[in-house]
Amino acid sequence: MNFDGYVAKFDVEHLAGLDAWRQGLLVPTWVGAYVDLTDAESDDSQASEDPHPFEAVQDLDDAQVPFVAVTSQTCDVVGAGPGARHPFVQVSPVRDLSTWDPAKLQLVRSGEINDWILLTEPPVDGAIWAIDLRASWPFSKTALATTAPVVGFASADDEREIGARLARKYERPAFPDAITTTAARRLDAAVERGMKAMWATDVVQLRLDVMKGTVLEPEEVRLLVVSEGLLDPASRRQFRDAWSDCKRPIQDAGIKWTRAGFRDIERMSAREYRDTFLLRIPKLSSGSLNAR
User: Fold this and answer.
1) Which of 94, 114, 160, 231 is buried most deeply by CB count within 10 Å?
2) pLDDT (0 to 100) of residue 137
3) Does residue 40 surpass a pLDDT of 50?
4) Residue 22 pLDDT greater than 80, yes or no
5) Quick one: which of 147, 138, 159, 162 has its CA closest to 18?
6) What residues contact 170, with CB distance under 8 A and at least 6 apart?
7) Domains with residue ranges and CATH for the chain
């Protein structure tokens, strides 16, 4: 099937085959292509100032890309309902990270490098494989329907991390490094201490409230600690101290720092939740992605 041959309706056989698929499952055989500059040494298009010096490069090394993972949301993967309008799904390559430096690999595990998602149950025992979100291409659903899916994650929570990671990747505001790196790491370390000391166990999220300025150019920010029930005074004091530890780097970035606020998740308004931004705190992540 090509872009001129969209299927208006999947037949019964294809519908049944697509029912086995969902976001996060792996495709053991694949076809992919990407566009790159032509090789000037083997093609004279650049030398002749061709206005379109591009070519499609196909057949990536199977040893480097043993699988691709379905990244489209599940309702677009199936053949009925909204999925009937989608002749393709999006897939991203699965890559071997076993040769990576341990420190960099830990950043992938903790979610600080957002472009990679580790498989928590790779189809090869002992493999350290991850989905590379830097690349994506369409895969025909008629081809998908005739292929048996391969599981790469240990739980449904782990599979759902793909959607959450994609949302963060494409929706996340461009906050300064003082917030997304320095402050987030210090808060993550504080949460780790608090989990051990039992003063952070009721916290579900840390969110950033841009009180002045815009998302792209924040002028004043504060931390919102969202918990199941309101935290006791001692726990609130711990989070105030942790947020105070972030004051200097935030101010050095030209942003006004304001003291932390606290919210009970059951009483937090939908507007405030929508207008604030989730901070990536790996120690608050669900699933087993950080357990490896």
Assistant:
1) 94
2) 87
3) no
4) yes
5) 147
6) none
7) 12-30+65-171 (2.30.30.110), 177-284 (3.30.300)
